[in-house]
């Protein structure tokens, strides 16, 4: 609506437009659509469509990492993706074998079942920190926090990140006689249990990627003190020399990437087939509120010869809608591989 | 009568299955269980039997489950929960918002002679207004004629819950012939009774004494829960009458 | 593979109910709604969906919350929630029986695999919703598929298949063939997943192919999950409409 006559300079004209933030609040769905839709008619010199946060649809937020900031924890990390910031702290406790009900045979290669059966890795997610208006402080764990914890735990176990031998505290009985015969039998006297606490300081979308990255970094940063079984005291003792503490060895480095699927058709409206859809990488809170469909891929790549990488998927989660099919999933996996490269480079710089 | 085709939500309805009316001026009527997706798709939203009335050019999906959704014009049995300054709040089905029944929506009442209904009273009423964004409104008077048309408070008797499909069967003009509810005739031969059926899956029965009322109520409920055929209904009626 | 079995609307006090048996799982689902919603959960434009999963043993934990969130987001897409604004549709799924390989005491239990039960939960929820006549935009078919070493894909795997599986996948397709849920874990490549996708789609499709001939007699195929669903619902509706047979 163009005003036909120029407004008099004395009275400021009634504004016919609102600031961006007002539009985003008033009609979020068309606001996002207007950003994503390519301009018509297409011209050569226009910039490609951007999301309201200034990113391209397939652009992730650059990660910002810091490790070892909590001095009292065995390992800790801070990860920031834009306005999503997470602190992860790991506390190691000793689980004596005498406390384990059924005697667990050690030495097998049955790593995964041992860690799972004893529950040696315990992630917990805390969202009630005032990190976002949707999560009030002082509330019991929200379904989102519980879901995140379940997803993290299941991914931790399924990926076999840490070998069970890293967490065992062994005892080699001394030779029974002078000739050095007998004895030498190895026995598991205790295990390390790692309590992994993940606190969200600020939540602006995509909690899973940030939580998983902080968990991995904190595990990498974890130093377990040298622990040994004292047969005279019949308990586990720890060496207090930092130099003797050992770092956890991580077997692999799977990277999680989350995408939201935005469809031009607003919910509740009927008809209008063939409406466009966009895959938005690393969605922020505003976009998550508008997209019901989401895809999370966790990939673990191997660097093949000749600079290429071989992508192995360890987890795929897609839910909440039907617009992403086979082709879209393939596209998403390719983007996740790219994301894996970014993380690898960041970690190389960080290490 | 052969069973009409079964439809599941989202099934395409072939154009041949839509009613063909001899009179093109009657618009196609979509009954419950169907939705129209512009421009020309008609899709079922519930699982059930696709029913067609060629004369009225109407199509709907018949199903026997679920909760009653208030629809304007339906006759229902409502329980008065409490009274406010100008209306009664009545419950149509459990755990749903109360329907309001204005004090003046009764036949022949004025501000001076408004009816006194205690909490727990049962009324036979018609849904005057229902839409998904508002709580329903009901009335016990025909607004056109000012007559009660049989609506109003029901005194005595007992209330029985049945499925929605059963209440539709009972509301047919001749339930025993059109809805194969022969059990009603069987029992009426021995036990005279009065009955009021609400679309919300409730049946009110009054006979001489509690025992006889219960026999009628049990007969309807057993027929409903067991999906009894004609012969089974006769057996149940015989058994119930013998125990009386 | 085992064909699923189910009974519908057998709980008279609930608005809709279903018991579903498949692969050794037995689940009772109950649906109540649309009912009044608490002020805090009320949505002005659509119905709130509440999914509760109760395990066979003990009380629900984070694992159940995770399953609930998957089912919730799926149902939110399938139910026409804008038809009943400011109401609550409550779906309760109680696990009655688990196969022996999944019980708590079994040493071979795969702790990290809540996926195995997911197809049965999804299917139970759908049947209970159909029984409650909640308006839905479509139906769906969920299946469990494993990829063994050597890239051998199996649909509706046996306990041994699960034991040998390198990756486990749950896929749910709508009647139109849209991918609604894809949950995979294990280790696999995109090629494996694409084969799994085709397999799941085929199983779901064979059901919707039957739909086109809806007025002809429904043919039940052995490897046909979508058809099985239709058969189960058909049984229920025929039972409901039995009284009409006597009407001339």
TrEMBL record, chain A:
Domain (Exoribonuclease phosphorolytic) ranges: 59-225
GO cellular component: cytoplasmic exosome (RNase complex); nuclear exosome (RNase complex); nucleolus
Entry's Gene Ontology molecular function annotations: mRNA 3'-UTR AU-rich region binding
InterPro entries: ExoRNase_PH_dom1, ExoRNase_PH_dom2_sf, Exosome_comp_Rrp42_subfam, PNPase/RNase_PH_dom_sf, Ribosomal_Su5_D2-typ_SF
Superkingdom of origin organism: Eukaryota
Ranges where the record places region Disordered: 32-72
UniProt keyword annotations, A-Z: Cytoplasm, Exosome, Nucleus, RNA-binding, rRNA processing
SUPFAM superfamilies reported in the protein's UniProt record: Ribonuclease PH domain 2-like, Ribosomal protein S5 domain 2-like
Chief location: cytoplasm
Any one Gene Ontology BP term: exonucleolytic trimming to generate mature 3'-end of 5.8S rRNA from tricistronic rRNA transcript (SSU-rRNA, 5.8S rRNA, LSU-rRNA)
UniProt keyword RNA-binding, yes or no: yes
Subcellular location: Cytoplasm; Nucleus, Nucleolus
Family according to the record: Belongs to the RNase PH family.
UniProt protein name: Ribosomal RNA-processing protein 43
Species of provenance: Glutinoglossum americanum
TrEMBL record, chain B:
One of the record's GO cellular component terms: cytoplasmic exosome (RNase complex)
Domain K Homology: 157-208
Domain of life of the organism encoding this protein: Eukaryota
Molecular function GO terms recorded: RNA binding
Compartment list: Cytoplasm; Nucleus, Nucleolus
Protein family: Belongs to the RRP40 family.
InterPro entries per record: Exosome_RNA_bind1/RRP40/RRP4, KH_dom_type_1, KH_dom_type_1_sf, NA-bd_OB-fold, RRP40_KH-I, Rrp40_N_euk, Rrp40_S1
KW NAD (keyword) present: no
One GO BP annotation of this record: TRAMP-dependent tRNA surveillance pathway
Residue ranges constituting the Exosome complex exonuclease Rrp40 N-terminal domain according to the UniProt record: 28-67
Keywords attached to this entry: Cytoplasm, Exosome, Nucleus, RNA-binding, rRNA processing
Protein's name in the database: Ribosomal RNA-processing protein 40
UniProtKB/TrEMBL annotation, chain C:
This protein's record includes keyword Transcription regulation: no
Location(s), subcellular: Nucleus
GO annotation, biological process: nuclear mRNA surveillance; poly(A)-dependent snoRNA 3'-end processing; rRNA catabolic process; rRNA processing; U4 snRNA 3'-end processing
Any one GO cellular component localisation term in the record: nuclear exosome (RNase complex)
GO molecular function, one term: RNA binding
InterPro entries in the record: ExoRNase_PH_dom1, ExoRNase_PH_dom2_sf, PNPase/RNase_PH_dom_sf, Ribosomal_Su5_D2-typ_SF, RNase_PH
Main location: nucleus
UniProt keyword terms in alphabetical order: Exosome, Nucleus, rRNA processing
Sequence ranges assigned to domain Exoribonuclease phosphorolytic in this UniProt record: 8-135
Domain of life: Eukaryota
Similarity comment: family membership: Belongs to the RNase PH family.
Protein name listed in UniProt: Exoribonuclease phosphorolytic domain-containing protein
Organism phylogeny: Eukaryota, Fungi, Dikarya, Ascomycota, Pezizomycotina
